[in-house]
Amino acid sequence: MLTTLISALRVQPFPGFAVNVYVTRYQTICLALFLALLPGCAVAQGGNFLDHLRIGFGAGANTSQVIDLAPFNIYEDLTGQTYTSSYTGLLMNIGNQYFVQAEWYNDHFIVAMKPGTYTHRFSKINEVVFSNETVEQETSSLLRYITFPAEVRYNVDLNRYRPYAGLTVAYSHLLPANDAFTRTFIRPKISAGAVIGTYIDLRYVILDLNAGYRSGLHNIASKADRFGTDDGTAFAQDDLILNDLQVSLSILFSLQKQRRFSNVECYY
């Protein structure tokens, strides 16, 4: 039933936008597990509420993976076939993110919110073959989003280190830009995926080393504005899905000491 519901989902975050959601079996499983775990993690914890609250900030790097659903090129080759495009790979699409982080936790489950600015970079490459030369066109994209990720994590207590794994969903809103290429993308973006990492407990300060992969759930190109690349580029905007791999480090603060270490453990 959940698979049927998600597969048929059409999200309209803002009037005038209709986002078709493409959900694979992997994405359906992630969303189902996330929705199943969230209510249990939201139950009030014993003791003072503030004793289970951590807040802080973080930053990191990301790399984007572009999935070309359908190309829309203007040029045709000498045989009348439309040219296809390619996109730069993961190692060349380096972006960054800066965010604040708030967490509620119990012995094993953690709900984390990480709103902030997430910037993604990638380039589109076209090779146009003329009768006497081949011209390569590369168009760079910089998409800056305000993103609201939510993560549900399960952690294992190993004293100072607490490794975890979990699921994440995120809603993003594309910030305005002056270039025509950026205006060919719709504003909302919804993604889901998985995270792994570990906490490093320093009593009053906790480090959170986190890595995650989020898969886009819909086409981010604006069908109404796909031919708005009026800056001299020889193509229209393709239908795209934007995935990303992220690594980040957060510094978290708590209102109480997080651990009671053994007497044999010393601090210098």
CATH class placement: Mainly Beta
Distance between the termini: 57 Å
The assigned CATH architecture is: Beta Barrel
Number of helices: 2
Major β-sheet annotation: 10 strands, antiparallel
Cα-based radius of gyration, to the nearest Å: 22 Å
Helix content: under 10%
Question: Do you know the CATH topology?
Answer: Porin
Shape: elongated
* Secondary structure tally: strands: 12
> Beta-strand percentage?
over 45%
Stretches with pLDDT under 50, minimum 5 residues: 1-21, 42-46
Would you summarize the structure shown here?
With 268 residues, this protein is mainly β.
Structural notes for this entry:
- With 268 residues, the chain is mainly β.
- The chain has one domain (25-254): Beta Barrel (Porin), CATH 2.40.160.20.
- Helices cover 9% and strands 50% of the residues.
- The chain has two helices and twelve strands; from the N terminus they run H-E-E-H-E-E-E-E-E-E-E-E-E-E.
- Strands 3, 4, 5, 6, 7, 8, 9, 10, 11 and 12 form a ten-stranded antiparallel β-sheet that branches.
- The radius of gyration is 22 Å and the shape is elongated.
- The protein starts with a helix and ends in a 14-residue tail after the last strand.
- The relative contact order is 0.20.
